[in-house]
Amino acid sequence: MTGENETVYEMDNEKLVELRKHQFILLNLTFLFILILFLVLSMLDITTKQFYFGSSILFAIQLFLYLKFGKTDVLIHTKKMKELHKYEKKKLGKEERKQRNLVIGLQFFAIVCFVMMGTITPSEKFFNLLTFSSVFYFFFVMMILVNIITFIRNRAFDRNKNLEGFTMKMFLINILFVFFIVSILVISSILLIRL
């Protein structure tokens, strides 16, 4: 093991806390950006189909960027995030490939789900069917859930020296999260069809 890799793997706790705080700041700034984007889109006459198919295209672009660069946050890949990714990749070891396959699988699943939503939902004006309070509520709940899941994942990652099976545990947590979100989308689509 080289001196550089050893430094990354045995990262100082104070430095690690700083990097994790930076990660959470970027995570929540991303949510804020998406919320602002939603509010901007609310001023346009987009349909439910356009929204879901547009979302599937964005997920496809993110998947392409991940396959090409190996990072889901390539557009906000700051110097501190590079250092954090380097630390995580080194510590994961053989689990890194499993995690990569997990990310690819989940993103592909998200693309399929949004395409399905775009197929089964009626072509109504998307934001005419939503209120600002419902949009804020949805994003607030999403932000809380993602922050909790990220905190649990980071805490388990940083405290455990043996990460064998770590990817599968995170996979189960992500499946529950995705199931929750998809359930909301499916129920919303069914209610729209009945209107």
From TrEMBL:
The chain crosses the membrane at residues 24-44, 50-69, 101-120, 126-150, 171-193. It comes from the Bacteria. Keywords: Membrane, Transmembrane, Transmembrane helix. The keyword Membrane applies. This is Uncharacterized protein.
